[in-house]
Every structure is written in C-alpha cells, then in structure tokens.
Amino acid sequence: SMSNPPSLALGLPVVTTCYPEVQGFRHVVSVASSPDEFFEMVRGAPLDGGSADPKQQQLAVLDARWDRIAARLVEIGDAASREPS
C-alpha cells in the first residue's frame, strides 16, 4: 500500500519515486524518475504547493480512511458467513 495517504488527506504536497502502488495516485502526487528530479521536486514543493489541488488529494484517499476500511472488512466477513460451506 502507498505510505502517503496521511499527507494527501492533509492536502500536503507529496513527492515520491515511481513504484507500482503509486500508479493510481499519479494525478495527486509528484513522481520523480531520478534522484536529481526528486531533489528538485522536494525543493520546489513548498513553493508551488505540489502537483494537485488539496481537495483532489483528499478525495484520492477517501477510501483509505479507517472507518471505510473497517466497513469493507465487515462486508467481506458478512458475505463469507452467508456462503454455504
């Protein structure tokens, strides 16, 4: 799982390297393709606010909230208990 949901939920600029889990968040994070690009993005993030609108960032991680995760786990458990054994 991606390690930046708290930063996104707060609307903070997020700079990261490219890894599989970040693919679904490319519209709300800045993804660096090299160490030099990462450094430049980190240096510039506080000035330009990052690559996305804070509201977009919050919406991107809405399903990562603990209450949503817990509700989904309850749904899965309920469905599994109704299946014939």
Short description:
The chain is mainly α and 85 residues long. The chain is built from 4 helices and 2 strands.
Question: What can you tell me about this protein's structure?
Answer:
The chain is mostly helical. Strands 1-2 form a two-stranded parallel ribbon. 15% of the residues are buried. The mean pLDDT is 79.
Q: Helix/strand-derived class? A: mainly alpha
Poorly predicted spans? none
Total number of strands: 2
Question: How far apart lie the N and C ends?
Answer: 32 Å
Radius of gyration: 17 Å
Shape, per Cα inertia axes: elongated
Largest sheet: 2 strands, parallel
- Level of helix content? 40-55%
The total of helices stands at 4
The portion of residues forming beta strands comes to 5-15%
What is the chain-wise order of helices and strands? HEEHHH
Strand order of the largest sheet: 1-2
Provide the residue-averaged pLDDT. 79
